[in-house]
Amino acid sequence: MHEAPTLNALLIQNEVRQAFGWSEADDAESALQLQRFLQHHDRWSFLHREKTLKRVTKQLLNAQRVIIIGAGVEENELKPYAQPGDVFVAADGAVGALQGYSQLACIVSDLDGGDYLDAAAKQGQTIVVHAHGDNVQQWQKTLASWQQCTPSPPLILTHQVNQVIPGMHNFGGFTDGDRALCFVLSLGCDPKTIELVGFSLNRVGQWSGVTVAETKLKKLEWMERIVSELGFGHFIKK
Predict the structure, then answer these.
(1) Rounded distance, CA 95 to CA 72, Å?
(2) Within its chain, how far is the Cα of 177 from the centroid?
(3) In 3D, which of 233, 132, 235, 232 has the Cα closest to residue 190?
(4) Partners of 106 in the beta sheet?
(5) What is the mean pLDDT of the chain?
(6) Per-domain boundaries in the chain
(7) pLDDT grade, residue 1 (50/70/90)?
(8) Which of the two ends of the chain, N or C, has the fewest CB atoms closer than 10 A to its terminal CB?
C-alpha cells in the first residue's frame, strides 16, 4: 500500500534520485534516524503525531477551499484567498507571505525555509517535516531548537523511500510545493476545492530558503511534471 494520490507520484521519486545521482539508502537512513530521534519524545511521539494528522485532515476536509502556497508567491496574490472557509497549506518558507496563521493548516517542509519557517514553528504552527538524504544535519539542528519552544510545534513526518516506516508517511512528490499537493490529495480533499498560488517554473521564489539557483530550477522542472500529472498544471506560472 502506498499513500501517494497516484502511484506515479510515488514512483517519480525513483526517477528524481536517478536524475540527481542521489541514493535511496541515504534517504532511508535519514528517515530512520528521524523516526528514532522522536521515538520517545513526549510532544512528538507517534500518538501525538497521529493526532496531529487527524486534526489537519479534518481541517482540510472541512475547508471550502484549500490554497497551497508556493515559494514564488507575491504577498498581494494572497488577498483574494482570505475568505471564510479558506484554509492554507504553505510550502516551507512561503509561510512568510501570510499576514497571520489563523487560517493555516500546516507547513510542508524539508526544513530549509529559514526565518519564516522558524517564526511559524515558534508560534506553534504544524509542520509536515520531510526527511531526505541531504538534510540530516538540518533536521537535527532545527528540531533540537524547536524542542525548546513552548509549546513545541506539532509535527507530521514524511519520507521518500520505497518501504514502510512506522510513524512516517510517503505522500509522494519531490519538492515542498508538489509534496504539499500530494499530501492534500492523499488526505482525500476534493481536487475541485484545491488551488495553487505562487508556483513558478522559471523563477526561484523570494520565500525559498538557502538554495543553489541552477539546481533549484532543475528541481522546478520535476515540480511542474508532478503538478501537471496530478491535473493542476494550469496554476503554474511559465
Answers:
(1) 11
(2) 6
(3) 232
(4) 89
(5) 92
(6) 7-230
(7) very low
(8) N
